[in-house]
Structure prediction request, 1011 residues.
Amino acid sequence: MNSVILRVGTRYLAGLLLVFSFYMMLRGHNEPGGGFIGGLTGATGFVLYAIACGTHDARAALRVLPQTIAIWGLGIALTAGLFAALFGDDLFTGQWLFIGATEDDKGLPLSSVLVFDIGVYLVVFGSILTIVFAMEEEI
Amino acid sequence: MAGGFPKEVRGNGLTGIVPVLFAAGLFAYFVSLVPNISSNEVLRWNSAWVPSLGIDLAFLVDGLSLTFALLISGIGTLVLLYSNTYLAGHPQYARFALFLTAFMVSMLGLVLADDLILLFVFWELTTITSYMLIGFSHEGEKSRRNALQALFVTGAGGLAFLAGLILLATFAGTTSISGILTMGDELRAHALYLPILILLLAGTLTKSAQVPFHFWLPNAMAAPTPVSAFLHSATMVKAGIYVMARVHPAMSGTDVWLWTLTILGALTAVFSSLLALRQTDLKQALAYTTLMALGTLTLFLGQESGYAMTAFATFLVVHSLYKASLFLVVGCIDTATGTRETDQLGGLGRLMPITAVAAALAALSMAGFPPFLGFIGKELKYAGAIAVASEPVLVAGAALLSNALMLAVAGVVAFRPFWRGSVPSTQSPQEAPWQMWLGPILLAGLGALFGIYPDLLQVALIAPTVISLTGEVGEVKELKLWAGINVPLMLSIATFVLGLLIYAGHVRLRAFLGRAFAVLPDLDLGWDRFLDGLKAFAKWQTRIVQNGKLSSYLFATFLTIAAGLLLTLVYTGLPTIAVDLSDVEWKHASIALLTIAGAVLALFTNSRIAGIAALGVVGIGIALIFIVFSAPDVAITQLLVETLIVVLVAVVMLRLPSLPKAEFRLSHALLSVAVGASVSLILIAVVSSPLDMRLTDYFEATSWPEAFGRNIVNVILVDFRALDTFGEIAVVVIAALSAYALLRTTRKGGSS
Amino acid sequence: MEVLFAITIGVLVAASVYLMLSNHLLRFIFGLVLISNAANLTIFVAGRLTDGAPPLIPEGADAPLGDVANALPQALVLTAIVIGFGLFAFAIVLVFRAWTTLNSLTPDDMRLAEPEEAQK
Prediction:
């Protein structure tokens, strides 16, 4: 895997996939996508990067340990679920805030559901990278 | 314990004193209830426990349960006091006191419970705590084995007992004991009467160690002596007696009841008093006389006459008093001299005067001499025996023989060691400290007191107990020392003569009995054989069922799945399969073919790379199915996961050896086809039946108006079923971390 | 149409069962992947197959217009795929670990905990 073209190309492709994965996650509530798909896409980008440039570089680019990301994701998803309790709803009930809502337009929607989906994204992303990096290094 | 009494009797501090005070408090409380019970009141205490099943925490105090409660808490107090010195400084005394107190409380719960399920809970608690107590010296293998034997025998009986209680509750429609006792006539006429009786008796007879389950009780002597005193005088073994007495009003009066209890009771009484005479170990001899007492009590419970019931109640008290006393005396002798063998004991009377007095009082009561309570008990036994309508000669004969033997044993245990021979020069016994002679002398003294003033006991306990047993006031017979010259008195005199003769010749008789009993099957040895056989069977079936081969486990699992699915299909009738393939388009057929081709390739290939490629083909085929049938989210996920699987497999495969050539196994092939076919059939049956769309309709209708999402699949995932999704991502994290840990230890272990 | 895929699933299951019985861990893993795919497909097919639109609600509407695919099995299958991947990753690591430690891929040879001699 010592091709310069592959390495350079992958670097851009990985970045592109990462951006695309965010997009997939954010649009997930209304179009095909969501945390699972986003997380898988983002992880695929980094897996490609690790194959092309080695896991050392990939870890450096990620900066954070992947298992830390996964645990954080779980924590964020749980927090989003518990958030509903503050408003007296059942756990994991979605809480919505529409910024600048008018009669016809709902404005910018912020919701605990989106936070939950971000948690899912991070869990999938972090878990896959945990396994793949470890495999690449240990095997 | 062979080193004599502890020099400085300081007990065990608070752990020693608190249980004694606790037990004494309970005893005082029960004493305070005596006036209520004597005036024929019945005290109840109720609280809902499992309301949905109609099970209550119901307690009831009447004559029968109060008699037991007084014996348990009173003897419990004295035994705890005794133990505090007997086991002074024992490193595990706290544990001992806890077990003993817990046992006492469970026993109290048992006799006070007024609910079948509650009764059973306490019943099992006594089994478990007595197991702990018998096996208290758990360093000894014999001790462990004997504790386990007691646990198994009484535990197995307990299971039967539970079944009997459940049948009883099913019959009555209630678990309230006092409720069931009012239905005696219906119960006796009911078809379930016999099964209930057999199951209940299986529990009570094992617990009370009646022939042929008697072998565990003498072995239970592995326990420290105070435990033996407690378990074998007032409690454990009397739990079975108590339950038989409790159900007596509802279940007695049939021929089965009469003959089962009479025959087993008489057999146990005579057989075990012969065994008792055979023993040279004082404690073992006492253990067998306990069996004799239990047999006698069972014998009387078989009857219905007022005499028999009065005899039962009286003998219950008599026996508890003298037996606890004698066991504690044996403990004193054992501690003072270091032995319990009759042949090595003698002349202790002058050195241990107080113990000797206690022993003498208890033994006279046991032997049935006037003016002790034992005499009254014996007279009543004879009166009760004569009142037996059907076979008075048999019952009276059994009573006469066992009483005479009892007298002889009393002489051997409590007379000979103190007043015959001289102290062997190897021993230097001293008098026991007051904590250890107080119990025996109090209990034995009560036997004398009640003998001289029988009215005390009569009014307070015996009359209410008999009323509990018969339900009628007029049935109570009077306790009298002198009842005139009658048949019971004649029989008493015959007992004395016969008993003294047996005592005089007991050494020769013992040798004879030793030879005679050698002919009988040894149930204790049989027990060991039985256990060995059970273990061998367990080992044999483990070797077959759990042979450690993954393929056979999987084979069994898949066989079960196939059999389960196919049998269900056959049982419910095969679905009317409308094989309607008219709507199949070429694209559907080609995707299905592609998927099947991938699976078949994965099945037959011997190449790793081809296998991976084949799996990829299957994955892509399935992703195509998702695309064709409008599941874009699922299809994207499937494709991404397929990509990652190929990456992982490629990484790992490079380091693993190539596949060996597969051998064809016909049995595996047949099973695979069966599982596959059953899954297909079930699925066809599912899709031919109407689909419940309520959930989907709900999600479709509320996805946008309530959850503000246009992608219904995603809304289900992150909103409607977010808790599920949370659980699922937690699984993903755990799988990742586990895989990570496995990989990391590979390097650290350096085993590769 | 469902019948066609029910048969496809049957073939997948049969192939995976045979592979899992084969007493070789790599083939076992192949079988595991296949059976997990077959299970996902079973859930999907049991929720009926439609050529209708994906379960999306168009702009301006409160509910999907016309015939759409059943969303519920899709949601179930989606998470099942990801979990299946986690399981697969763990299994393959376990196989690798077994190979490095015991130097065998035949489960019947792995008798460290229960040596065959001891049972005789």
Notes: The two ends of chain C are 55 Å apart (CA to CA).
